[in-house]
Specification:
95 residues, mainly alpha, 4 helices, globular
């Protein structure tokens, strides 16, 4: 699909992998663009923050499905620690 706009998030940049998932499904892209910039930020952070590639891949696969199902943000996610300092306690310090 060409010529489609992908709305940005409040803080994080969309990854190439996430952009690929979004551009393959017009319904998903429309729902993504309907989210607020903060909601889009939460999805990007949720997909990119895991250290294990296996977990990142799982989140990448799930984010499109869950957005289409109507979820506005990742389930059971304490929030982006880059945006909310109080959420940082849920994430181990990066070395």
């Amino acid at each position: 699909m060409t010529g489609l706009t992908i709305e940005p998030s409040a803080l994080h940049e969309l990854t190439v992998d996430m952009e690929s998932v979004l551009t393959k499904d017009k319904t998903l892209l429309n729902k993504w663009n309907g989210l607020t910039p903060i909601q889009r930020n939460e999805w990007i952070c949720w997909v990119t923050i895991p250290k294990k590639q296996e977990t990142k891949d799982d989140h990448l696969n799930r984010f499109g499905i869950e957005i289409i199902e109507g979820q506005k943000s990742p389930c059971c996610w304490p929030g982006c620690p880059h945006r909310r300092p109080k959420a940082a306690k849920w994430f181990k310090a990066k070395k």
